[in-house]
Sequence to fold (299 residues):
Amino acid sequence: MKSPAHRSRDIERQAGYLRPEHCAPPPQLGPGAGAMWFIRDGCGIVCGVITWMLVLFAEFVVLFVMLMPARSLLYSLVNGVLFNTLAFLALASHFRAMCTDPGAVPKGNATKEFIESLQLKPGQVVYKCPKCCCIKPDRAHHCSVCKRCIRKMDHHCPWVNNCVGENNQKYFVLFTMYIALISLHALIMAAFHFVFCFEEDWNTCSSFSPPATVILLILLCFEGLLFLIFTSVMFGTQVHSICTDETGIEQLKKEERRWIKKSKWMNMKVVFGHPFSIGWLSPFSTPDHGKAEPYQYVV
Fold:
């Protein structure tokens, strides 16, 4: 008994399945087009806004509840600079993950001219996506939210309102790492502040009333613990996926491995850039994929 995935592959192998005459040529982009990638999905936009609001809430509590009333200026400066730097990098990584093309295959490229340009030999097979009318390169999958085939698609994440693919996986990994770090930092500072308030007068350890201070700190601890666990798990699974060179979808579908196996360090450099540098930690550095394995249309 064949799996649904294998049956669909058999359908795509049948002669005449491509039917290029049914595909319109890809739209011609103007000089200023294609500068910004943004998915117009209501759920994803709401999740993205909530993400920024939660980070800004943590920023508010850390600055106005814990750091500004602190007696030590050095303690406030060091922790304020560290937390704000990590928060800025987290939001910048989120923006890059959300507004970077994850690796979309040109829509509507399953035209007669494009198929002829592949110079197919007898027995060679190409796969067409019937939903976006494109010739799918190897390891590409169709996303029902983005409505595009995405190269090396790992999953669609509503929190960044985008797919995680070959072009933005670095930014998604950095986003999860920096969120985990600011969550851990906020939890540590909240613990110290609770101790400080218990030892001192609650009326002097915060600019807010004691009940408001307690509520804000409890909410911050709940948010920090929740996102520390969630983003740490996501960070770990993403790093494991990169090292094994197998996306989440490929693991879920147990797809046959047809690509060249590389070392874990080489897989890391393919995602974060060649060669290793401080740019690996920067959401403003676009990774140079170096001599990455080119994706094939013909299998």
The first strand starts at residue 127 and ends at 129. Residues 82 and 185 are 9 Å apart (CA to CA). Residues 1-17, 26-33 have pLDDT under 50 and may be disordered. The first helix runs from residue 4 to 13.
